[in-house]
Amino acid sequence: MKMRKADLIRERLENALSPLQIRILDKSAHHAGHIGAPDGGESHFYLEIVSRQFEGLSRVARHRLIYKALENAFDEGLHALQIDAKAPGE
User: Fold this and answer.
1) Is the distance from CB of 22 to CB of 9 less than 8 angstroms?
2) Considering only Cβ atoms within 10 Å of each terminal Cβ, which end of the chain, N or C, has fewer?
3) CATH (domain of 79)
4) Nearest Cα to 81, choosing from 58, 47, 51, 49?
5) What is the rounded average pLDDT of the residues 54-80?
6) Residue 74 pLDDT level (bands cut at 50, 70, 90)
C-alpha cells in the first residue's frame, strides 16, 4: 500500500528535525486545475512545525533545513509547500 504524501513528509521531518509540534494540511484542492497540480491532489501542503533545531536560525535557514529533509519529495510529486517554522516559545 502506497503511503500518503502527508505521512511521508511527516516521517521525513520527524527523522530530520525531531519536531515538538507538527501539523501538515493538504491544500491541493485549492489548486485543482492549476499548472503543476496533478489529478488526485497531494501536491500542495501547508506545514506548521516547531523544533529546537530552529533556535537562533533565520527564517531562510529554517526553510533550508526543511527543504533538505524533503529533498526527494519534490521529485516525488510535491509541488508547493507553505511553511510556518518556529523555535519553541515563538
Assistant:
1) no
2) N
3) 3.30.300.90
4) 47
5) 91
6) confident
